[in-house]
Amino acid sequence: MKFGPLGEAIEAAMPTSEADPIGVWAASLSLYSAAISRRVRTEDRRPIVVWTVLAGRSAIGRKGYALGTATALLGKSIGGFIHTRKRSGVSSGPSLVDMLAGLELDTMGADGGIDGRCMLLEEEWAAVLKTQKKCAKFSTLFRTAWDGKPISNRTKKDGLQSVAQPLLGFHAHITPGEWAKYVSASEALGGSYNRLLPVLVERSKMLPYNNKWQLPDTSALKTAYTWAQEEDRVMRFSVEAGERFDEIRALVEDRMAELPELLASYMERSAEQVQRVSAVLSATVMEEEISREAVEAAWNFVSFSMASVEKLVKDAATNNEGNKPMKTPEELVREVLKRYGGQAKSSDMLRPLWGKLNAAALKETVEGMDDVEMWTERTGSRGAPSIMFRLVEEVQAPEPKRPDAQVIDMQELLKSKNKPVDPPALGNFFSGLI
């Protein structure tokens, strides 16, 4: 997923942060995309805002820590935007329109023109979801805002309020249990949640109580932010990036075809999510042409989100059906290896095993399994060797041979009533039936 100065900054900050690096990446993409959304668009004139959700258990998920790390990293580049445009607690359609219209109204006549950018941060998303369900308009207006299309609302007091081009960023936190309770199937089928990129997160490490964040130099991000604000930027795929994007679209649709309708509904906009994320990443290196490398980094993030959604939805269904017997660690390892065709890297194994086995537990489990082998292998020119796992077929023990016996056929026996029969052979015949 790492790409450009944003990826380098997050990597440099992680040794002194307990957050999940994917959580920091997700929060950073939401914040930065919202900040540059005023003048940066895709080539089909769509917004580039990336909406993310961190799903993790209370305390050990370190969701707030991830957002805090992202906010600190981006403070010197987009800190002013975050401070002045951060909002929360929006729980109805009319309040959403009123908030965005108010931001536009406040900037009318300003030197830079109307600026309706907004960053909606919901760190207690479950509480807001409870209230949002009471408003029939919210889901439709929320979806339309992500699409960048006009939204409006009419009130008796103020008449018609409208926003021609919503510039809404969104980032939220929720626990897996709250997801199961408040993220409804009907809303998902209606398309409310396929605009979001949820990712499962957990604490990356435990640091001393007196640990202090060590923030890296982020001047490159500040320069890129200035570049994005100077003039209108239209983000276009290079030829190679466009070809890879078409391949990804086909992969997403093939995966959706394999899934139940409810689960597939969360992934309907995964291809556009790749386009948006890759556009944001390209903006961080001040390039309007999106490279294949940016598309690959975006796809790695979006595919991780797709895997997170599968786990969240399936776990929610399991909870609703009642408690089921837990699988053993060995069964989980075999199941994941079969999913990857019998062989996988440790990093690929740990994603679907999130919350069940960590790296140390995975290694310990495999060491006690006769049907899984483990080794290290260098898969690239840089970095540490990867730990590899392979499922091997169990060796079947040969069946014990029966002692040689004189075999007799029943039909032949019946035909030879008057012929003497060898008693040992007859005894062997009936003992074989028993």
Task: Characterise the protein shown here.
The protein is of the alpha/beta class and 434 residues long. It contains 18 helices and 13 strands. It has helices at residues 4-13, 21-36, 63-85, 93-106, 125-132, 138-147, 176-182, 185-189, 219-230, 239-258, 261-265, 270-284, 292-321, 329-339, 346-350, 359-367, 410-415, 423-433; strands at 40-42, 51-55, 86-87, 117-122, 151-155, 159-163, 167-174, 196-200, 233-237, 289-290, 343-345, 372-377, 386-391. A 5-stranded parallel β-sheet has the order 3-4-7-2-8, with helices on both faces. A 3-stranded parallel β-sheet has the order 1-9-10. The longest helix has 30 residues, at 292-321. It is globular, with a radius of gyration of 29 Å. The termini are far apart. Mean pLDDT is 87; it is low at 402-408 and 429-434.
Summary tags:
alpha/beta; 5-stranded parallel sheet; 13 strands; disordered C terminus
Brief characterization of the structure:
It is built from 18 helices and 13 strands.
Detail the topology: elements first, then pairings.
Layout (H helix, E strand, L loop, with lengths): L3 H10 L7 H16 L3 E3 L8 E5 L7 H23 E2 L5 H14 L10 E6 L2 H8 L5 H10 L3 E5 L3 E5 L3 E8 L1 H7 L2 H5 L6 E5 L18 H12 L2 E5 L1 H20 L2 H5 L4 H15 L4 E2 L1 H30 L7 H11 L3 E3 H5 L8 H9 L4 E6 L8 E6 L18 H6 L7 H11 L1
Parallel strand pairs: 1-9, 2-7, 2-8, 3-4, 4-7, 9-10
Antiparallel strand pairs: 5-6, 11-13, 12-13
Helix pairs in contact: 1-2, 2-3, 3-9, 4-6, 7-13, 10-12, 10-13, 12-13
